């Protein structure tokens, strides 16, 4: 996922579901590439031989059980209408409410966590900011948060994200159609929200000086433990 402009585009639940279904296969490839890059930069003497931890694919989070039931219905209908094999199997998906997630004694790590919270007020959100920060920093390689339009998450390191402008999807994926078809009316009744994102692997640009050419004795880079 790449950073977009500061314009706050609107997203509906069916549109977000269709986007995530198309996005997930690319996230695993991105994570593998980043992990390989980080491993190559380590000392060969202390190189980690074990394979990277395989993360569960996706966690959906809603503000309450009623919204969670609606989400699960929308996910089921989306999967039923897909003709391709890109739809994620049920054993790779997880879902929870904010309260249940906040009360978990031990958190799991996920490739992507999506918080669908368009009905949550700014006052209600404040009690869950520490939870969002934990998933931003520790438990999600990629994080999406759908909120009411007037809530600003930029102070917490998130950026507005317009999924219709992303180049992640293939040209034959029509998200506009996915937004208006193949979904129960109840999903559309939930309206739209502003989407925020945080990507653990590209939230900060790598400085030009952070490579072997700018270090003393670059010929020893990757050969010795300093």
From TrEMBL:
Query: Pfam families per the record?
Result: DUF6231
Enumerate the InterPro entries for this protein. Answer: DUF6231 (IPR046199)
Q: What is this protein called?
A: Uncharacterized protein
The organism of origin for this protein: Psychrobacter halodurans
